[in-house]
Amino acid sequence: MKKNSAKSASKTQSAAPATNDSNASPKVKFFSGEHIPLELHKVRVVQKLHLVPVERRLAAMQEAGFNTFQLQTKDVFLDMLTDSGVNAMSDNQIAAMMQADDAYAGSQSFARLQSAVEEVFGKKYLLPAHQGRACENILAQHFVKPNSVIPMNYHFTTTLAHITRNGGRIVEILSDDALKIKSTNPFKGNIDIAKLEASIATHGAGNIPFIRMEASTNLIGGQPFSIANMRAVRAIAKKHGILLVLDASLIGENAYFVKQREAEFKNASVAKILLTMCDLADIVYFSARKVSSSRGGGICSNNKEIIDQMKNLVVLFEGFLTYGGISVREIESMAVGLRETTDETVMSQSPLFIEYLVGRLEKLGIPVVTPAGGLGCHVDAMGFVPHIPQKDYPAGALATAFYIASGVRGMERGTMSSVRDVHGHDILADAELLRLAMPRRVFTLSQVKYVEDRLAWLYKNRNLIGGIHFVEEPTVLRFFNGRLAANSDWPQKLAAKFRQDFGDSL
Ligand code: F0G
C-alpha cells in the first residue's frame, strides 16, 4: 500500500509524500482498489440513536405536520437536516470551553476569538452576533434602504428575508449552468461577470450598497466559487465604488474545493486560500454554527469606520461588544474551530463523504446535484418524483417520504422554502432539492450506506409518493414552522409497502 500526500498527486510520479504538513490531507489508497473515504479522526464521545419502526415514523410525520423541522429527535435515526450547530466538536474545542472568561465586558475569551479571526480571515476588527442571520440583520439594517439592490451569486433564505424586510431586493447573477442539476462545472457558485456589469448599469452603482458572494453557495447544492471569479468581482466592485461582502459560513469547504479544482492553488495551504478569499472582501460575515463547528456568528473587516458604524446595532440587538449574545464557552470553541478550518483533514471529511454518496446514487440512476458540493448531498426532487408538480412541493414530499422510509431527516430546499408574490401565488423555486446534510465528522460510512440503500428502495417505489399542501402557513420563513398535510393517503400506502418489503426489519 502506497501513501501519497495530496501535494504529490500520482500524475507527478512521486513515490514519497512531498510534505510534512500535518494539516494537508494525505492520499490513502486501498489495496483492494476500492475508493472510499477514510476517517482521519476517532470517536471519543457518542450519542445513542433510535431507529423507530415505520409505523411510528408515519405517525411522527403526521404529528410533525409533514414538515421535517417539526420532528422530535427521539423519532429521528440519522439527523441530516443541517450541518448548522451539529458538527462534531474536537477535543481541543471542548477543552478550550473550560477556560472561558465569563466577564460581561473585556472578556479574554473574546480577545482570543479576535486573534483567531485575524489569523484565519486576516481581519482586524470583529463584531460578535449570536448567529449568521443576526449578522445579516445588522448588515441589512445598516446598508439596505428602500430601493437598494443587492447583486449576489445566490440568496440564502435568511439573507433574502433581512434584505426585503429593510425594503431592498436581490438580483441573482449566476452562470447559466449553475442551476442545471447535472453539470461538470467545478465552480457553479461563480458570479457571471458580464451579467454583473449589466446589472450595475441597469440599477446604478449608487443603489447598490454591496455585492454579496456566498461561499459554497448553499441553496444551489453547496457549490463553490473560484478565486479567479472573486478577483473579477472584486475588480468590478472597486471600479464602481461598491463594497464586496463575503458570506463565509461555508468558507472552509469552498477553500477545500479551490485547492482541489483551481490549478493556481493546488499546492497552496487551506490557510493561504482562506486568507486570499477574505482579503478580496471588504466585509466578511459568518455563521459560526457552520464555519467553526460551534455556535455564534460575527462580522469582520479591516475598515474600522464601517465596523464602528455598526457597533450600535450590536449593543442594541445582540449584547455587549465582547460577547454579542454568544456564550463565552462557545466563543472559546469558535476560536479553536476557526483555526481548525485551516486543517485540510478536518475540512475534507464532509466533502469526501458527500462525494462518495453522490457517486453511489449516480450509479443507481438516482438524480443528484453534480458536481458533489459541500454541506450535503442534494437529491433532485423534480427528477425523482416528476409526477408531482411544483405547486404540490415535490422536494417537501420527498423529504417526508424519505423520513418514512428510513428514519433519516433531510430538509426541503425548494418552493416550500420560497415565498409568495404580492398576489399570494407561490414563487416557484429554481430547483426542488432534498438536502441530506453531512455534518462534519458525525456519521460513519455504514450509516451513509444505509442512506444509499433506503434511497434506492424509495426510488423503486417513487410512484407511491404524492404531494403535500400547507394547512398552517407563517408569513415569514414559512418552512420552519409551517404545517402541511398529504394530498391523499399516499403516506399510509408507502409505509404499508415498506412493511411488506422489509418484513420485521426496521
Ligand atoms: N448564510 C448561509 C450561507 C447559511 O447557510 C446560513 C444558515 C446562514 C447564513 C444563517 O446562519 O443559521 O447561523 O443564522 N444555514 C443553515 C442551514 C440554517 O441549515 O443551511 P444562522
TrEMBL record:
The modification N6-(pyridoxal phosphate)lysine is found at residue 290. Its cofactor is pyridoxal 5'-phosphate. SUPFAM superfamilies: PLP-dependent transferases. It comes from the Bacteria. GO terms for molecular function: carbon-carbon lyase activity. Residues 1-16 have a biased composition (Low complexity). InterPro entries: ArAA_b-elim_lyase/Thr_aldolase, Beta-eliminating_lyase, PyrdxlP-dep_Trfase, PyrdxlP-dep_Trfase_major, PyrdxlP-dep_Trfase_small. Coiled coil: none annotated. It holds the Pfam family Beta_elim_lyase. Residues 79-452 form the Aromatic amino acid beta-eliminating lyase/threonine aldolase domain. Residues 1-26 are annotated as: Disordered. One of its GO terms (biological process) is aromatic amino acid metabolic process. Keywords: Lyase, Pyridoxal phosphate. The keyword Iron does not apply. Gene3D superfamilies: Aspartate Aminotransferase, domain 1, Type I PLP-dependent aspartate aminotransferase-like (Major domain). Belongs to the beta-eliminating lyase family. PANTHER family: BETA-ELIMINATING LYASE-LIKE PROTEIN-RELATED, TRYPTOPHANASE. This is Tryptophanase. It comes from Ereboglobus luteus.
